[in-house]
Amino acid sequence: MTLLGFLIKIAQEGNDIARDANVIARQFNAIASVANNIAIRSIEFQEEIARKDRELQIKLVAEDARLQKEISQTQINNRAKYCFS
């Protein structure tokens, strides 16, 4: 094999390696894109869960206040019954 033939073979092998590297890079980019989409959806779900949790906490506080008021009124009514009986 001549020097020129040897250099051509090395150049071809270099091109093959570069081609394989490009394929791997495209696959990596596709995987990274999917990972980013998953991360974005995860953040969106966490935000939605936090929002729903806040809504439920507000409803719980309101319901607790209503029940406490109802209990107080029942106690007042019961005391009034015993005082006037």
Could you describe the 3D structure shown?
Helices cover 95% and strands 0% of the residues. It is built from one helix and no strands. The longest helix has 81 residues, at 3-83. It is rod-shaped, with a radius of gyration of 36 Å. The mean pLDDT is 94.
Distance between the termini: 121 Å
Instruction: Give the count of helical stretches.
Output: 1
Radius of gyration: 36 Å
What's the helix-strand series?
H
What does the secondary structure layout of this molecule look like, with pairings?
Layout (H helix, E strand, L loop, with lengths): L2 H81 L2
Name the features.
85 residues; mainly alpha; 1 helix; 95% helix
Short description:
95% of the residues lie in helices and 0% in strands. It has one helix at 3-83.
